[in-house]
């Protein structure tokens, strides 16, 4: 599995489908500071657990998506997206992948890709 930060999106893994190299992207967003605002608690990322994360955050699995690696590269080369090349630790990456299976907001297609029980 490889990963890089793309804005607030983390590239979680790469896989092939129909001869295309694809990646799943997940959004990382700050934990709400206002009480009683619900958020997905399947994977919490504490401030400092990744260089990009400066506030306690969570993986917003409801926005998980698939993109072609070629499209990601094109968006970066056009300057539309930035790649920060700051890899997540293996423990953080494992927690994020496990969160795909734990989150109730993940579509079945992604649970199948990640071989969730």
Task: Explain what this protein looks like in three dimensions.
The chain has one domain. The two termini are 20 Å apart. The longest helix is centred in the C-terminal third of the chain and has 13 residues. It contains three helices and five strands. It is an alpha+beta fold. 23% of the residues are buried. Helix content is 24%, strand content 31%.
In spatial order, strands of the major sheet run: 1-2-3-5-4
What is the CA-atom radius of gyration, in angstroms? 14 Å
**Tally of extended strands?**
5
| N- to C-terminal distance | 20 Å
Task: Estimate what percentage of residues fall within beta strands.
Answer: 25-35%
> Which class do the helix and strand fractions yield?
alpha+beta
Shape estimate: globular
Domains, number: 1
Helical content stands at 10-25%
Query: Describe the biggest sheet?
Result: 5 strands, antiparallel
Tell me, rounded to a whole number, the average pLDDT.
Answer: 83
């Amino acid at each position: 599995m490889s990963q890089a930060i793309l804005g607030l999106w983390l590239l979680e893994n790469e896989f092939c489908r129909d001869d295309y190299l694809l990646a799943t992207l997940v959004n990382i967003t700050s934990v709400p500071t206002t009480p009683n605002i619900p958020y997905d608690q399947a994977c919490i990322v504490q401030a400092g657990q990744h260089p990009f994360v400066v506030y306690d955050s969570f993986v917003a699995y409801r926005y998980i998506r698939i993109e072609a690696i070629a499209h990601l590269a094109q968006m970066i080369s056009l300057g539309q997206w930035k790649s920060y090349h700051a890899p997540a630790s293996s423990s953080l990456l494992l927690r994020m992948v496990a969160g795909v299976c734990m989150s109730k907001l993940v579509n079945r297609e992604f649970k199948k890709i990640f071989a969730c029980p």
